[in-house]
Write a structure and sequence with these properties.
Blueprint lengths: L1 E4 L12 E3 L2 H8 L5 E3 L2 H33 L2 E6 L6 E6 L1 H12 L14 E3 L1 E8 L5 E10 L7
Parallel strand pairs: 4-8
Antiparallel strand pairs: 1-2, 1-3, 5-6, 7-8
């Protein structure tokens, strides 16, 4: 049976895909959960109009992401942390801390999962951090990790 997938189904198909599936799989699983619809001419027409609308919306998102990438590329985020000897810091700078600082400085909300760090930053200094804004747009932000000035106890 030929069906059009309305939502992503892991390991099977993505939303908008048209695929042949077993009759029982379609009737007993996909149709009741509204994951797919039968590939009729009317559904094909809806699919094509949905694809055009998605392409138009995606083009707008790409333009916004390019503008944000330009802003983020010029941005330097300064984070002050407690540090010990040899430029080692206590704790680490995580993607959540970077995302919070970006929101504070620019007003744009960046999901911490879009910040592509191999691991937490554990040393003082300047670090280039890539941020995936969309599938095709990535921005590099300069993160400057500095030691916090601590007051001496008397």
């Amino acid at each position: 049976m030929k069906v059009i997938f309305l939502q992503d189904v892991p390991n099977v198909a993505s939303a908008g895909d048209m695929k042949m599936v077993a009759n029982g799989y379609a009737r007993n699983f996909l149709f009741p959960k509204r994951l797919a619809a039968l590939a009729t001419p009317a559904e094909l027409q809806k699919l094509e109009s949905r694809r055009q609308a998605d392409a138009h919306r995606q083009a707008g998102l790409e333009q916004e992401a390019e503008a944000l990438a330009q802003v983020l590329g010029e941005l330097t985020i300064a984070l002050k942390v407690r540090a010990g000897a040899k430029a080692r810091i206590y704790g680490s700078v995580t993607t959540a801390a970077i995302a919070k600082e970006i929101k504070r400085l620019t007003g744009h909300e960046i999901d911490k999962h879009d910040i592509e760090l191999e691991g937490p930053i554990r040393e003082l200094g300047s670090h280039q951090v890539p941020i995936r804004l969309t599938k095709n747009v990535t921005a590099n932000v300069n993160v400057l990790v500095e030691a916090k000035e601590e007051k001496e106890k008397e």
